[in-house]
Design a protein that fits this description.
globular, 8 strands, alpha/beta, 9 helices, binds 2-phosphoglycolic acid, single chain
């Protein structure tokens, strides 16, 4: 693929595979991890992070010293205590996790609020993890209300972050209508949204906003990833379905390497 001269891939695209509640067994998780590992080792243009179900994490990370980093799909804003069913960011860190996905649309649909994401971003940072704060509107009309919606998510979610810590924060813009959909948002629309996201963070925290990394997520695969990375003004991608299929993840990482 020949790129127009004004567009270049980000130095190394950050590709975060969100496995969600997949695969059904640890045996298959190991197979998927091994395939991802192989693809990541030969991937030229990408740094790969995987977010398996937390029950598989420690076993997958044990003894692994390769290029892939690990993320949790969610963790509590509390440290320890009577919180049945929860895990903490400290526990994740103890399992060699470096990133924490926060406020994914599917967690928000289950009741997570902007206030919750604020506490989780703060907790992830204080445990030394990199928060990946997910934002994105449910639908788009012509009146531009989606911008106000995303601004609210950013303003509350990042309210307690010290400006100096913004370089450790990642924003994943995932329009809910493009998650699990037939096609992704256009790179042109993502470019506009990236500028808007940075402007919102600038209003909140000033110049340090330039240090925040922005990812796009929603129906990314090998066919649309290169264009999103070159034209969408993003540092990487949050990938659901394509990250849970041994062939698709390989094709995706190859497509990025060939771009
Ligand atoms: P998808 O999921 O790539 O399957 O659309 C993305 C996500 O929910 O993070």
């Amino acid at each position: 693929m020949t790129l127009p001269s004004c567009y270049t891939l980000p130095m190394k695209a950050l590709i975060v595979g969100n496995w969600k509640m997949n695969p059904a067994t640890y045996k298959d998780a190991k197979l998927l991890f091994d395939a991802t590992k192989k693809a990541a080792e030969s991937a030229k243009g990408a740094t790969v992070v995987v977010a398996p179900p937390s029950l598989y994490l420690r076993e997958l990370s044990k003894g692994y010293r390769g290029k892939i980093a690990f993320a949790v799909q969610n963790a509590s804003a509390e440290t320890t205590g009577a919180h049945t069913g929860e895990i903490s960011f400290a526990m994740a860190k103890d399992a060699r996790v470096e990133f924490g996905i926060i406020g994914h649309a599917e967690r928000r649909a289950a009741g997570e609020t902007n206030e919750d994401t604020k506490l989780k971003v703060k907790m992830a940072l204080s445990e030394g993890l990199t928060p990946i704060l997910c934002v994105g509107e449910h639908s788009r009309g012509t009146s531009g209300t989606h911008f106000a919606f995303v601004r609210d998510q950013l303003r509350t979610g990042l309210m307690d972050v010290e400006p100096a810590n913004l370089k450790k924060v990642i924003i994943a813009y995932e329009p809910v209508w493009a998650i699990g959909a037939a096609s992704a948002m256009s790179p042109r629309d993502m470019h506009e949204m990236s500028i808007f996201i940075r402007k919102c963070i600038f209003e909140l925290h000033g110049e340090a906003a330039h240090a925040v990394r922005i990812l796009y997520g929603g129906s990314i695969d090998a066919t649309n990833a290169p264009a999103m990375l070159t034209e969408g003004d993003v540092s990487g991608l949050l990938v659901g379905r394509a990250s849970t299929d041994t062939t698709h993840i390989k094709e995706l990482l190859q497509a990025i390497g060939n771009a």
